[in-house]
Amino acid sequence: VAKLCVCDLLVAQCDVNCCCDPDCSAADVSLFTTCSVPIVTGDSRLCSQKAAIYSLDVEANPPERIFKLIDQVNPSVFCIHATNYKQALSFSSPEMPTSENFDQLLKQFGSASFSAEPDSWNMNTDAQNPSDANETYSYEYGVPIQTVDAFLRLPSPVVSSWCSDANPAGFLVNQATKCIRSVSVEKCGNIQAVSMLFYINSSILAVPKSSQMVNITVQSIVVQSLNGMRTLLNGSDVLRLPMILDELCINIVLGVSYHITYTDTGEIIEAAASFVLGAISKEALSIQQSFEISFTQVNTKPVPLSGNPGYVVGLPVRAGFRPQGYPFPVEILFAALVLNTNKYSQLTLLQSTSNQDCLAAQGARTPILFGYNMISGCKLRITAAMKCQPLTQTLLDLLKGQSFPEYVASFGNSQAQDVLDWVPITHLHTSEQRIYNTFQSSCQIPVSLEIEVKWTKYGSLVNPQARIVNVTATITTTTLKQLPPGRERTIPITSSVVFTDISSPAEPGYKAWPTINAKLPFDFFFPFV
């Protein structure tokens, strides 16, 4: 019962006032007002059973969660002493009479009385159930990744900052942890957790409860010196074990990064590990290790998300294009552009430079981060020798970048194939009244780009998600006229982005966080939150 939690409805998220939710941190619990499920038990018909009691210590600062495991006795005379007949705990489909099995069923159930007891009361759980022989297993979200001996380990700090190797890696749960491990040069060869072999010697089960195994291959090895310099080794097929050399222990594992490739049916087909190896001196008593795991579906490219599902403040706004030939094929409807290293891959903004020279700032872009209002700009020095058309195109490329996207993802985790999850960018043009005497004939040049992102809170009041509903890009132009020979003029070029919350306000007299003094069944809103 300590592992049961009937109010845990959100995956990998804390449910409000759910004191048994393992995803709730101490900071989350400090905001609870009560425990929605104060007691968790099994079958109420049992004579004696364990009961998990949850409560809040409101006198503590901040409030803390109190957990007790007690023995609960059923006062009823008629109670179940032991559930040793497992088949009685669920209904089985009755066997339908046919011409082939009618005589057998008549012999078994045709008399005045018959027994429903199984032929054997042996409750050996290790024996395979015949009904499971043809059952197909697959990994589901959050299920620990099984190996030949136990599960794939992803060491992490538990109570203190020291590493615990009992943390299993969950399927499709991207994790990154750091922890401290005690070491010594004299015993470095005997400490399993600092050896590469500890992290790759156990094969992964392709699917749970199967005999098909996937070996963990070494993808890369990086060696870090005592001063922090890192070097990528050419050959990654060599197993480097810890060893003592000149009062140093080398080939100590400082970091492990797993990458798991899986199919859409929940089967793991490939596993790779990248290592960072280092050295310690005899003065070192501990080291800091870092661990990471990521997942990629086969035949797809890894796409970093900006939220799940709603946008997270500070993460890039995801954008993309509609390829030629749409709507065929639908699978490549959008080229998701989310890599920070690619200047053409996001909804970006002109990046200001120290010298403020527009012509020198070409190509310098910065990604637009959700929730961050930004403004940047530069100064354009115009001479009489400049031509209108090339200057106009140069300024457009400067403001919008070489490839301005057509669509923006409404959610932080919008997938390319989900057409309705992408918002088209609306383009507007305005003209200023200012006139610069530069060219012989008037010339319209763009001088500013203003992007407005309208978003709203989507979902429940308890856990609202940020959703983009409209994006508008406004180009402002101005008119240039003739400038005397030998004269120069400097005009400002600006670009900006503004995020506007258009969520509907609460009605007058309505409390934003109402308190309801009534208890509903825990599954009243299922499957909705």
UniProtKB/TrEMBL annotation:
Pinpoint the Tectonic-1-3 domain residues: 138-298, 307-501
Q: Which GO terms describe its biological process?
A: cilium assembly; protein localization to ciliary transition zone
Can the keyword Plastid be found in this entry's annotation? no
Q: May I have one GO cellular component term?
A: MKS complex
The Tectonic-1-3 N-terminal domain sits at 2-102
Keywords, ordered alphabetically: Cilium biogenesis/degradation, Glycoprotein, Signal
One Pfam family this chain carries? DUF1619_N
Task: Tell me yes or no: is Calcium among this UniProt entry's keywords.
Answer: no
Q: Which InterPro entries match?
A: TCTN1-3, TCTN1-3_dom, TCTN1-3_N
- Superkingdom of source: Eukaryota
Q: Which PANTHER family match?
A: TECTONIC FAMILY MEMBER, TECTONIC-1
Description of how the protein assembles with itself and partners: Part of the tectonic-like complex (also named B9 complex).
Protein family? Belongs to the tectonic family.
Q: Name the chain's protein.
A: Tectonic-1
